[in-house]
Amino acid sequence: MDQRWTNVDTYVEEAVLGADPDGDRVLAAQRSAGLPDIAVSRAQGALLSVLARSIGAERAVEFGTLGGYSTLCLARALPPSGQVVTFEIDERHAAVARASLDEAGVGHRVTIRVGPAIDNLVTLAYDEPFDLAFIDADKPHNVHYYEAAMTRMRPGGIVIVDNVVRDGAVADAASTDARVQGSRAVLERVGADPRVEGTVLQTVGSKGYDGLLLATVLD
Ligand SMILES: C[S@@+](CC[C@H](N)C(=O)[O-])C[C@H]1O[C@@H](n2cnc3c(N)ncnc32)[C@H](O)[C@@H]1O
Prior knowledge:
Blueprint: H1 3-17, H2 21-32, H3 42-54, E1 59-63, H4 69-75, E2 83-88, H5 91-103, E3 110-114, H6 117-120, E4 130-135, H7 142-150, E5 153-161, H8 178-192, E6 196-205, E7 208-217
Parallel strand pairs: 1-2, 1-4, 2-3, 4-5
Antiparallel strand pairs: 5-7, 6-7
The site of S-adenosylmethionine has 18 residues, from helix 4 and strand 2.
């Protein structure tokens, strides 16, 4: 990883993002519980917040909670009545997230559904439409989570899929990595889907070289 990418993330945290004691506590709790260090970066978490506020999001769905860092970024960008429904397969991750989100004062805005997201997707069918979907769980299932979210997205809503560039491997059609093929499947689905306008933003930073798929839902 290029040291400049980390230097710029650090500078952006100081110059643009400012102090975030709640976010720091969520990440510290995640670390001390031994959870993997695979949350979005602070700059990317702030992007989720900016996007949620930009579209006046009130309801968000997330695939992949981990320790609740991206969930926090989404939950605090919503109005007081806002709701995040987040899917997490690992009970321990969900418990860490629950405690951290409660401590940060946003727990009442967050429902954590524990178990394989695929099995729990049926619960989406009974809820209100979503304004924002953030897909960041097991990458081979990206396209299934995209299709599930799209059944409940409102026009003008936004779908965000994390880690789609995978150090550039997404451009390799012959890749045998199921995560790369998961990225390719969702990118190609979005490209062929007349319900959305999408793009991919390549990113570098403290988490390496990767990228986000962004798709806005058309009327
Ligand atoms: C990259 S981490 C999520 C990071 C989190 N969005 C953040 O930025 O703070 C992926 C999470 O998805 C969870 N996960 C993996 N497979 C899953 C599945 N089939 N259903 C639900 N969650 C799953 C993992 O346990 C892990 O906590």
